[in-house]
């Protein structure tokens, strides 16, 4: 659950929060691409620093830490695997560590790139973004519905669990096979509930003219302000620098011999 | 005592303080109605009886067992809880197995399971459906099955959460009958309900809850006719009580819970006036 | 002016052997408030769904007879057109709200219809004001109480400006106080907009006095169609799964005991008025 806690419902008030979601989406994408094309430790650290700046200015560092905490086991695995595979090729501890650090920090940058977007954008804004990016409405609606009904389903799960426990079901006892079997009295009613709910929802959608018009309009609209454009330009400049550095082979790791010893190029 | 609540506090993970120092005693064989608006703590209270929820402060003792020391499975054997949408917990392919599920969980031998299931189904007039899928039963039959499921292991305490929601008058009549019968069998019956008219017909002990606290506890006749209490708990007064209250200046007594009593009063006042 | 006309309507759900509706004939005048009651499974919900086209378009089955709703035939007209004439509110508040804010939810049907943004904004404001929920505009549906959710559901339907409002047990999931408040606001809105209302409801005591007409649907047939007062006076409503308001049962008995007792009352207020008038004449 901690990976998804980022999806809040009320908009924040910081500069980052108030940026147009499309700009944030573009920024996240560019950060991700830059991290993919580079394995240079300096660039990676630079990206991490930029991300941290954004997160701090948006005041969402606590939520970010919670999200990252969920992914720490994964990062640790990457660190270990990289270290041992590098060590087996070249038995120098410092190089092994250098490689491991690079790859695991890179993973962190990947994971955080879209945190910038999700932690500072409400689901409503995400839906609007998808709409204005001309994503077919069915997909946007599916996305919104998933968010809308997740808490409802969570509640439903608790209700079914309580009801079956009151009939003597013990979910946390017994051998593994028994525990799997014990899921049936919980999953079946839940599934039936989901199906029943979808019928009722479909009826209501029908009554609310879903699919009536090919040209669907919307209540709200995203408008880019001068601040948004300015921010986007800055990000674009940084991005082009990042890409050119790669294309021209000017990465710090290659140009600074000390780094080349310990870190991948 | 069937069940005792000693200064019970409960706070949900969402920080909602649902029960604030509730102290109550339920005697064996009592019929009790828990009333109050949505969010007053009725369901939370019922869930403490079979251990689904354990008190954050204070303790709950059911049939001599402290609920904090027992599992839900153990407590459920003495305290059955029929949820609001109990018909939505079915999962077996036939009615027999559906009723047998709980009994098998409690460890009864297959022989005893068979006897009890047959008894429960017969009692609720569902024996002809024994091999049918529970999903194909009608609304009323499903509700009876939900009751049969709980009664099969004969718990001493039965808790019903909103048993009359969405039902027509014929179904409610049946439910009233079943509740009275459970009570006659010597079981302690606790009803969490909004249905004031239904409660007025049963004349149980009434406990009013508001924002997690007990605001009233006593005779149905006294509590449902008290305007201040009714307002505090945000419930509706029985229609007759409300009507007669408006006529108190003409000598009417608003402590009227059934039509017979109402007829008597009106005749008395009108005939008296005319003499 | 007749706004709903149903002639010889019969319907059997696909896969079912028993007809849900048998030769139903009814007509409803513009502006009437009709209370639809009867035992569970008797056909009330089915009847409502035949009026807005959900039957036979969404629910398949054997369909015969003719239905006219404001001149449109629900079996032949696309449901989105029917929804602009007859709006429908369902029992479960949770399963009618789709968006992540109240505002967005009320706008949902209007967006689907492709209305211009200005039009949408205006209609959403009006609908929220009607149901007194403007202060809830940014809240997400999950945080709202059942009563608030139903108000949003109603506002969403009214935003399409239908002439008829059909409601299938809208207070089922609400406590009596909230139910009474909801029905009161529906009555208010009905009068302000001059809507025709069809209300399926078990809690008869909350609506009997306000309704112009009562329709009792049992076993697929309309067994009574007329004034609520007549129904309760001449029929044992309990046999049809309808709980008579206690005051009504009381006054029905009084009528037999007391010659001067004039009428069967449908509410506590009517009962009070009746008693006072009798007392003053003594």
Automatic annotation (TrEMBL), chain A:
Transmembrane regions: 30-56, 68-87, 99-119, 229-249
A GO-annotated cellular component: plasma membrane
Pfam families: CbiQ
UniProt lineage: Archaea, Nitrososphaerota, Candidatus Caldarchaeales, Candidatus Caldarchaeaceae, Candidatus Caldarchaeum
Coiled coil in keyword set: no
InterPro entries: ABC/ECF_trnsptr_transmembrane
Location relative to the cell: Membrane
Recorded topology in the membrane: Multi-pass membrane protein
Main localization of the protein described in the UniProt heading: membrane
Keywords: Membrane, Transmembrane, Transmembrane helix
Protein name: Energy-coupling factor transporter transmembrane protein EcfT
TrEMBL record, chain C:
Domain of life, per lineage: Archaea
Keyword list, A-Z: ATP-binding, Cell membrane, Membrane, Nucleotide-binding, Translocase, Transport
Record carries keyword Transport: yes
GO terms for MF: ATP binding; ATP hydrolysis activity; ATPase-coupled transmembrane transporter activity
Topological type in the membrane: Peripheral membrane protein
GO cellular component, one term: ATP-binding cassette (ABC) transporter complex
Subcellular location: Cell membrane
UniProt cross-references to Gene3D superfamilies, sorted A to Z: P-loop containing nucleotide triphosphate hydrolases
One Pfam family matching this protein: ABC_tran
Record SMART domains: AAA
Domain called ABC transporter: residue spans: 4-244
Family matches, as SUPFAM superfamilies: P-loop containing nucleoside triphosphate hydrolases (SSF52540)
PROSITE patterns assigned to the protein according to its UniProt record, in alphabetical order: ABC_TRANSPORTER_1, ABC_TRANSPORTER_2
Signal sequence, start to end: none
Entries under InterPro entries matching the protein: AAA+_ATPase, ABC_transporter-like_ATP-bd, ABC_transporter-like_CS, ABC_transpr_CbiO/EcfA_su, ECF_ABC_transporter_ATP-bd, P-loop_NTPase
Family indicated by similarity: Belongs to the ABC transporter superfamily.
Function: Probably part of an ABC transporter complex. Responsible for energy coupling to the transport system.
This protein's name: ABC transporter ATP-binding protein
Organism annotation: Caldiarchaeum subterraneum
């Amino acid at each position: 659950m901690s990976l998804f806690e980022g999806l809040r419902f009320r908009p924040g008030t910081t500069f980052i929060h108030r940026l147009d979601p499309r700009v944030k989406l573009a920024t996240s994408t560019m950060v991700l691409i830059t991290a993919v094309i580079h394995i240079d430790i300096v660039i990676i650290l630079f990206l991490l620093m930029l991300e941290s700046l954004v997160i701090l200015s948006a005041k969402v560092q606590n939520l970010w830490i919670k999200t990252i905490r969920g992914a720490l086991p994964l990062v640790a695995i990457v660190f270990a695997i990289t270290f041992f595979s590098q060590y087996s090729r070249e038995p120098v501890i410092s190089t092994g560590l250098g490689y491991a650090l690079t790859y695991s920090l890179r993973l962190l940058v990947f994971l955080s790139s879209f945190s910038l977007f999700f932690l500072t954008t409400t689901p409503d804004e995400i839906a609007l973004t998808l709409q204005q990016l001309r994503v077919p409405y069915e997909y946007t609606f599916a996305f919104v519905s998933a968010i809308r009904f997740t808490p409802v389903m969570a509640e439903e799960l608790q209700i079914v669990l309580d009801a079956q426990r009151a009939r003597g079901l013990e979910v946390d006892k017994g051998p593994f096979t028994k525990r799997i079997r014990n899921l049936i009295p919980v999953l079946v009613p839940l599934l039936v509930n989901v199906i029943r709910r979808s019928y009722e929802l479909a009826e209501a959608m029908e009554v609310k003219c879903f699919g009536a018009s090919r040209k669907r309009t919307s209540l709200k609209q995203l408008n880019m302000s001068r601040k948004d454009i300015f921010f986007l330009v800055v990000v674009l400049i940084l991005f082009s620098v990042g890409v050119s550095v790669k294309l021209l082979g000017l990465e710090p790791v290659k140009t600074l011999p000390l780094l080349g010893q310990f870190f991948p190029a | 005592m069937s069940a005792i609540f000693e200064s019970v506090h409960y706070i949900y993970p969402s920080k909602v303080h649902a029960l604030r120092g509730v102290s109550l005693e339920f005697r064996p064989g009592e019929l009790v109605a828990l009333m109050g608006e949505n969010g007053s703590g009725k369901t939370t209270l019922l869930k403490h009886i079979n251990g689904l929820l354990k008190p954050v402060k204070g303790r709950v003792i059911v049939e001599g067992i402290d609920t904090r020391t027992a599992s839900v499975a153990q407590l459920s054997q003495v305290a059955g809880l029929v949820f609001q949408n109990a018909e939505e917990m079915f999962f077996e392919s036939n009615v027999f197995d559906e009723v047998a599920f709980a009994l098998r969980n409690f460890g009864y031998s297959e022989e005893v399971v068979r006897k009890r299931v047959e008894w429960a189904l017969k009692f609720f007039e569902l024996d002809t459906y024994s091999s049918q899928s529970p999903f194909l039963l009608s609304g009323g039959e499903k509700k009876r099955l939900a009751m049969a499921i709980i009664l099969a292991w004969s718990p001493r305490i039965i808790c019903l959460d909103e048993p009359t929601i969405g039902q027509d008058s014929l179904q409610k009549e049946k439910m009233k009958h079943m509740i009275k019968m459970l009570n006659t069998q010597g079981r302690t019956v606790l009803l969490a309900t909004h249905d004031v008219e239904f409660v007025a017909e049963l004349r149980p002990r009434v406990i009013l809850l508001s924002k997690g606290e007990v605001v009233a506890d006593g005779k149905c006749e006294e509590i449902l006719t008290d305007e201040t209490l009714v307002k505090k708990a945000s419930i509706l007064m029985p229609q007759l009580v409300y009507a007669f209250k408006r006529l108190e200046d003409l000598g009417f007594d608003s402590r009227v819970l059934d039509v017979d009593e109402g007829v008597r009063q009106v005749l008395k006042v009108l005939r008296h006036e005319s003499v | 002016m007749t706004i709903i006309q149903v002639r010889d309507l019969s319907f059997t759900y696909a896969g079912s052997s028993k007809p849900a509706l048998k030769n139903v004939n009814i007509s409803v005048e513009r502006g009437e408030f009709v209370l639809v009651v009867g035992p569970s499974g008797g056909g009330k919900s089915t009847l409502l769904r035949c009026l807005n086209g959900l039957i036979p378009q969404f629910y398949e089955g054997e369909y015969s007879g003719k239905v006219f709703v404001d001149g449109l035939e629900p079996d032949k007209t696309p449901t989105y057109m029917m929804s602009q004439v007859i709006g429908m509110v369902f029992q479960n508040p949770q399963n009618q709200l789709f968006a992540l804010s109240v505002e967005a939810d009320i706008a949902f049907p209007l967006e689907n219809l492709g209305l211009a943004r200005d039009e949408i904004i205006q209609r959403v404001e009006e609908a929220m004001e009607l149901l007194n929920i403007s202060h809830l505009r940014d809240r997400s549906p999950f945080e709202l109480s059942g009563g608030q959710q139903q108000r949003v559901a109603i506002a969403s339907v009214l935003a399409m400006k239908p002439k008829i409002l059909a409601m299938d047990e809208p207070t089922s999931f609400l406590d009596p106080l909230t139910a009474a408040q909801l029905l009161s606001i529906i009555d208010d809105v009905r009068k302000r907009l001059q809507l025709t209302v069809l209300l399926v409801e078990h809690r008869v005591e909350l609506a009997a006095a306000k309704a112009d007409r009562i329709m009792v649907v049992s076993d697929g047939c309309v067994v009574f169609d007329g004034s609520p007062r007549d129904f309760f006076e001449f029929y044992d409503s309990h046999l049809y799964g309808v709980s008579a308001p206690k005051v009504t049962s009381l006054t029905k008995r009084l009528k037999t005991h007391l010659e001067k007792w004039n009428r069967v009352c449908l509410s506590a207020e009517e009962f009070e008025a009746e008693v006072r008038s009798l007392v003053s004449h003594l």
